[in-house]
Design goal:
The chain has nine helices and no strands. By secondary structure, it is mainly alpha-helical. Helix 8 packs antiparallel against helix 9.
Length: 268
């Protein structure tokens, strides 16, 4: 089995730390993004939503960094690379929105200029390592879990693509108002996490899915918490809000089911 290279492990550990800090600034400081973030985010519900994504990414990246083999790390690494690349693209598109007179604004631009390059370098080195690249686990994901991941992954990919490509088209289907920049930032995370869900189905390995299951559960819980903490920010779109909340409940149930399946396999 191919091991995770020291360069990739260190890269992931650094990224995990950055995601943890970003999540705290956005989720806990949702009402203070004018002072503590790279650009002012309104309403606070949007900031908390992005913070939840960053904290879930922290869990996903950290679990990948702790993996001993590439086959266990790759279902998380590729989606993280996609998120980083998309955030770089939207940074370039909306560069005028960033507060480049502040440390936070400059740090964002520099970080997302360097992150994709560093990760690409680590991935090229990782793929150059020779060795077996298939899981040796005989068990597979339960069929209900696979179906849930396919459905949820497809929904997140579709929603993320729409938020990225046509932010204005989401005005009637998203529970609250988004700016083009925040729409594309949320879309970047949705595309990456949707890809992670579909890659988990492709890998079909309950043990490799353990880290993603934890991140998946954390994401659903935090998104619902953000929604409850900032209810006044919701628009008058009850149907959209209902579907939005129901989707995150489904994500929590799917993550919990996957975690239970992986734990049962590890004991057997």
């Amino acid at each position: 089995m191919r091991p995770v290279t020291p360069r990739l492990r260190l890269t992931l550990e650094v990224f995990a730390g950055l995601a943890l800090i970003a999540g705290a600034l956005l989720f806990l400081g949702a009402t203070r993004t004018d002072a503590w973030w790279s650009w002012t985010i309104e309403p606070p519900l949007t900031a908390a939503t992005l913070g939840a994504f960053y904290w879930a990414a922290f869990v996903l990246i950290l679990m990948a960094a702790r993996s001993k083999t590439w086959v266990r790390a790759r279902p998380a690494v590729y989606p993280v690379a996609v998120i980083a690349a998309l955030l770089l693209v939207i940074t370039l598109i909306h560069l005028d929105r960033f507060d480049l007179d502040s440390l936070f604004g400059v740090f964002w631009v520099v970080a997302y200029a360097l992150v994709p390059v560093q990760l690409a370098w680590a991935l090229v080195e990782q793929r150059g390592i020779t060795g077996e690249d298939r899981s040796t686990t005989q068990q597979r994901l339960p069929k209900p879990l696979r179906r849930a991941l396919i459905f949820e992954g497809a929904v997140m990919l579709a929603a993320g693509a729409l938020l990225l490509v046509a932010p204005a088209a989401t005005d009637d289907i998203w529970p609250w108002a988004l700016s083009p920049l925040t729409s594309r930032a949320i879309g970047s995370f949705l595309v990456g996490i949707g890809l992670a869900a579909l890659m988990a189905v492709r890998e079909d390995d309950p043990l490799a899915f353990r880290g993603a299951a934890i991140a998946y559960t954390v994401l659903g819980l935090l998104e619902l918490l953000a929604l409850n903490l900032h209810i006044p920010d919701l628009g008058e779109r009850p149907l959209a809000t209902t579907f939005y909340a129901a989707f995150w409940v489904a994500v929590i149930l799917t993550g919990g089911y996957g975690l239970r399946a992986s734990r049962a396999l590890s004991r057997s």
